Amino acid sequence: MILPIGPIHPALKEPLRLKLKTQGERVISAEIDYGYVHRGIERIMVGKTWQKSIYLAERVCGICSYIHTQTFAETFEKISDERAPLRAQYLRVLTNELDRIQSHLLANSTFFKAVEHETLFMYMLHLREPVMDAIELLTGNRVNMGWNVVGGVRMDVKDVHLQQIMTIMNKLEVEYQKYVEMYEQGPLMGLRSKKVGRMTKEEAIKARAVGPIGRASGLKHDLREDHHTYRDNLDFKVIWRKEGDTFARNMNRFDEIPQSISLIKQVIENLPEGDIRKKVEIGAGFGEWRNEAPRGEVTYMIETNGNLINNASIRTPSIMNIDACAKYMLKDVATVSDAIAAYASVDPCIACVERVVIVDEKGGEKQFQGIFDIK
Amino acid sequence: MLDALKDIIRKSSIHVCLVNSGGCNGCDIEVVALLSPRYDLEQYGIYVHNNPREADVILVTGAVTEQWKENLRRIYTKAPEPKIVVALGNCPISGDVFNQEGGCVNAPVSDFIPVDAEVSGCPPRPSEILEAILAVAPGAIAAKGRQKE
What we know:
The complex is a heterodimer of chains A (375) and B (149).
Chain A: E1 2-5, E2 17-23, E3 26-33, H1 41-45, H2 50-58, H3 65-79, H4 86-114, H5 118-139, E4 148-149, E5 152-153, H6 159-185, H7 187-193, H8 201-206, H9 211-216, H10 228-233, H11 246-269, E6 284-293, E7 296-305, E8 309-315, H12 317-329, H13 336-345, H14 350-353, E9 358-359, E10 365-366
Antiparallel strand pairs in A: 1-2, 2-3, 4-5, 6-7, 7-8, 9-10
Chain B: H1 2-11, E1 14-20, H2 26-34, E2 46-48, E3 57-61, H3 68-78, E4 84-88, H4 90-94, E5 117-119, H5 126-148
Parallel strand pairs in B: 1-2, 1-3, 3-4, 4-5
Helix pairs in contact in B: 1-5, 2-5
């Protein structure tokens, strides 16, 4: 029997159709239909200046909106062979890590909602609100921050705000540990998440899984290792696990939060003086830049003539992760509710996904069914 | 007598369905933030469950993509009377940044379903969303319920 879930369903935040092939209560395989939120961002970007396109890049995804503007700006900086001033780079790290904390907390809260653990769901959202306050203190907005420009950041930060962010982080570090223990050692949570939705390392490589989902399956890959600001100035270590189940994915996200807090503290303590923005003469050419978003690897490929964008292509992490989920994790799962939990643990973000259409050479469009279509 | 009683009950029990018709998620996560202990949506008798068949209030976010042109109307008809629609964010009101040459959006939402209230902002703050629902929902639901009966 095929059990359709979505596009509007109590278990889903975003529109997407999940078709579960079931035998009794057991889920044999799954199929995912996209296409509900395709807005054509890449097409709108063509023929516009970067000043007009950076807002569009921000609205690719509301949850990880920050990293999209940073990657967009860094792509242009790469094309022009420039780098932002060191203070701006530090401030970018600060905002990026704050955004990562709130995204991870939101992702885990969604998982707890999916397994109907309301208490932890509320605790996660309770922890998240002070982080949103910190983001608002720094940038002036909660979600779409408008913080990056090509060649730096838009505003300088005040010492008072840095101290307040430091206080928030100290408080979060202490409070947060309790809830991780609740999850890690709770017997019921263990039953719902351990050995559910397993994906091995080989499968993760085949499905090109990235971010915490890939790292939970043993792929030791985090692009922050290669980013020049993290590599040269900050103390950073990749967090990864071997189990590859739902529990490991959630724990991997949990473990990354203290590291983000430590990075924020390092930034605040060592913030260098200087300019926050410099004038960049935009060069002509093609540039590609990758960054680690909260969900994995985000790539921007932009071709510009020095003023207008000729061609833009964005690759977001969720598309690989959702396909990995459909192909490998939702394979022989014991119950439908476990399948929903495994799906929620992937941290799916549908708004990022909708962007690819494969055009057949002989004419006519073919709908994109997933990453496995690309040979 | 019965009407009066129904009015009182409906005012303090509002079921909300969130429909993302092609936005960036920003408004949706602000609705999730509303559930947090800080804003605590449920103390006002508002319950978000994403099921259109039991909804009193349909919160629409997003700028109506091609797939949603017909489905939005279908979801609206599935919700029982009395119902109200709140358009959340700039996307359902005007299409926001997506409503440009090359974009695949069909904003505004009011072309497809009747809209009772609009909250602007990209995204609006949680407190604004809460204020809008509370300002329009209880009265409108009660009034619409009377009309029908």
